[in-house]
Amino acid sequence: MFGRYLRQVLSTGWGILFLIAGAISTGVTFVLIYRPKFALPYWIPGAISIAAWLVAPYRLYRQQQTQIDILTANQQRPRRAKLTVVEEQDSYYIRRSTPQGTTPKRESGMYLELSVSIENKGERPATITSYSLRIEGMGEFHDVRPSPQDWIWGLGHSTR
Predict the structure, then answer these.
(1) What residues make up the domain containing 57?
(2) Those residues with Cβ within 8 angstroms of residue 93's Cβ, 6 or more apart along the chain or in another chain
(3) Co-location of 63 and 101 in the same domain
(4) Cα–chain-centroid distance for residue 124?
(5) pLDDT digits (tens, 9 = 90+) for 25-41
(6) Domain boundary among 74, 101, 130
């Protein structure tokens, strides 16, 4: 782990520069033991500190921003279902009216059987639990729930 860190530090010019500056700083600290009259100009430590305080966080910011950009580019888009309705043949409807002999003769109901296929072209599975239906001339029907047909119309009533 430390070897990888050292390679990373020494792989850039700034890393080498700060390593050299650190070695000089350590040497200047201990030079007073051997040469008590040595005087370092006061602006050098301040300039090095300011450069280190500005450059090191900026380099870290650039590395993190690069990693964020790479992760964002590699992240998959959210999977969504994309449902399309395919019209099929054999749709029909039956109009029910009041029995013969009653006047006035009126419609008492309607049975509509749509023959359609719903195809999912998206990347996420989907289960259809309800849908809204609009029929021109008839109106809108909200929250229609699909169910299989389990009965047949008979002569006077429905049979199961």
Answers:
(1) 2-74
(2) 110, 111, 112, 113
(3) no
(4) 13
(5) 778 778 878 888 877 78
(6) 74
